[in-house]
Every structure is written in C-alpha cells, then in structure tokens.
C-alpha cells in the first residue's frame, strides 16, 4: 500500500533572478575546456564530423517533475540555492517522499513522438538528445535495474503500449534520419548506492565516504554500467552518449570506471560519440557550453545547449524566447563553428506547449530559405562584423553573410557593407529568398552591396537576411 500525495502545481521555483543556475555554474566548472583531447578512433572521428554537419538539434528534459511544474530534479537536492515551496516544503524527508511518489501519478497520455519529430524536422533540426534518466534517478526507459521507472507497474503510464518512451522517441526520430543521442545522468539520487539512506544527503555529491564503503561504490559503478549497457543494446543505433553530472569525475572522490563503460558502449555502438561533459579528457568528445555562446570559434567540436524558455523542464509559467532571438542564436552559434542543441520540455500530459510548436514553425520557414548556410557549414574569418555573421560551405566555394535584423520583418539599408578575409574575387552575390540582381564592390577587404529600393522594404524576409557570396 502506498501513501497518497496530492499534486500541487507550481510547487517549486529553482531560479535565481529569473535565470536557472546550472550545477556546473555552482561547481565553478569552466565548460570551455582548455584540455580537449581529440579522439583517435577513426569511426569516432567520422561520426563527430557527421554530427558537426547537423548543426541544429533538439534536446528534451522530461520526467515526473513535470507534474509539479518543477525545474528538473533539483528540488530534492539540499543545496542553498534551491527554494522549495508548497505543503511539504518545511520537512525535507516528507518533501522528498512526496516527490518520489509522483511516479504513481505520472500518466502522459498525449505522448506522440511522431508529432515532435515532424515539428523538429520541419524546423531544420537534424539530431535529438533525450533524457533517459536525470539526477533524480527516475528512468524514462525500461531498465531492469530499478523499479523507479516509467514502465513500472507503479507508474500508470506503464499500461500504455508506448510506455517505453525512450525507445518510441528514438525509433520515431530515426525513421527520418535524425542522429540519436541518449542523455544519461551519472549521479543517481534515488540509488541507495549514491545517496545511502544511512546518511542524509548534504549536496549533489555521493553522501558517504567511498573509501570506507568501496563495495557500495562498486555496486553503483555496476549499476551505472548495466543501465548504459541496456541503452546501448536495446534501443537501436545510438550516435551520442551524453553524460551529465560532471561532479562525478576522476578526482579520487566519486569516480566511475569510464574506460570500462566506454569500451562496452562502443563495442555495441561503433563510433559512438561520448560526451562526459565538463570532464576534460578522452571521453569528452565535444564540449557543451550551457546557456552561453563563446565569443570566438573554439579549436575543438562544441555545442551550446540552451533552453527555448527559461527552464530545462516544462513549466506552465515559462516564457519562450521570441523566434527572431532563436534564429539569431542559431546564426551566432554556427558562425563560431558550434552546434545548437535547443531544449523543449514536454508537459506532464506528454506534449509541448503551443508556443514551442509556433517557434519551431517560424524557425522552419526561415531555414527553408536560409538553411543552406547553416547545415554542413564551417566558420570563416572574420566570423562577424557588426550585425553580420559569416559561415562557409564545406567546399569553400560559398560564403554566407547573415544580416541580423532588429525587427521581425527585415528592412535593409540602401547599402550593406562588411569586411571579408582572404577574398580576392567574387563571382556572384545573391540574397537568399529573393530573385533580385545585386550589384557589389570589393575593395581593400570590404564588400559593399547595393540593395534595390523595392528589396529594401518589400523583401518578404524575417529575422535575418542571408547574402550568398560565390567565390
């Protein structure tokens, strides 16, 4: 028999000054690694190059926490920046018990991954990363290692024929040639071998001395190994293993056996990209600046992971970034050689907010015109000049100059001028989405494009105009 807990929406606000604070920021971990180690496996190198060509991906944080409109997992972590609210907030143990009993009410009956895939594909997204397990330990896949999972008889949605949502999502997106990424949290706050109930948890770290209890820590290593093995063997081809929780790292306190885990994973998934994020070394195949964009290109593969709103997980009070801002972020990230992993959190019912679909629709219309300078592009100096950002085709025959607008509808000046680097001759300049014939000059590394009067105000373009420069 279980205790019954009523669900209270908007129970937790884990934001400071309107901005969610990441664990990496709290830990003081600098995410733009200076110690990047390039992979040596030719299959990994090839896969990494393929991943860089995709440029735009979908991230999804989803779990039982959506029943409370929570910021994923963190409300059960006893750290000073978390603010708990609601009827259970005064007592930590009562609160945590209520949180873990959300499993008994989780029933996302509107779950339809094909609907998500269609919207993401139309927006120009080319890969997906899904949270198979977040820090709270609730598994969104059919693991055999714990009953704290969406397919457990304790979870109402287990009766749904599509209850193994990780498999359903991966299968739906794979049918349209998306690259597939499995997010997996290294820490697991539900596991007795990470947060042992003998001691109270003090923060996000393991709550006992693993040197005094090595057999318990070994069990956790085995548990982690077994769950990742399940994902690598029962869910079809996987391209990316995206490991979160960088405080679990080889510093002598709480290290996982990463060589054993990765060797196993790649034996089942040859060429697998491993992202042991914020842990520099051979298992961080690309870096992941969170909610930020580097000021200049980085000398190694990287990806900005960012929320469409303010929260990583669904919240009914969330506000989504305007479409123009999202397009601008995509352009800036790609111009610096990065990928953009844009997060949308499904609700407790199993769908996205209508605003999320609208943002993707707007981005898709923009990408239909301008995507050729985004997908499979490379950064090119000078990278940006004022409000103009540059990319280059892989064959180096075309440079794309993205003119970022300050309004949704674009009004172009009579002349657009910007600097170029190492361009001696231009064969043609065109405005994507327009049949207008343009005149230009190239002098002393400066390109000046004359814009016809009717194109200045009646171009029909939104957010950012792209000039294609054939060289």
UniProtKB/TrEMBL annotation:
E.C. number(s) listed in UniProt: 3.2.1.51
Site described as May be important for catalysis, located at: 305
Pinpoint the Glycoside hydrolase family 29 N-terminal domain residues. 28-372
GO terms classed as biological process = fucose metabolic process; glycoside catabolic process
Organism, by scientific name, is: Chitinophaga pinensis
Full protein name? alpha-L-fucosidase
Annotated ranges, domain Alpha-L-fucosidase C-terminal: 385-469
Stated role: Alpha-L-fucosidase is responsible for hydrolyzing the alpha-1,6-linked fucose joined to the reducing-end N-acetylglucosamine of the carbohydrate moieties of glycoproteins.
Q: What class of enzyme is it?
A: hydrolase
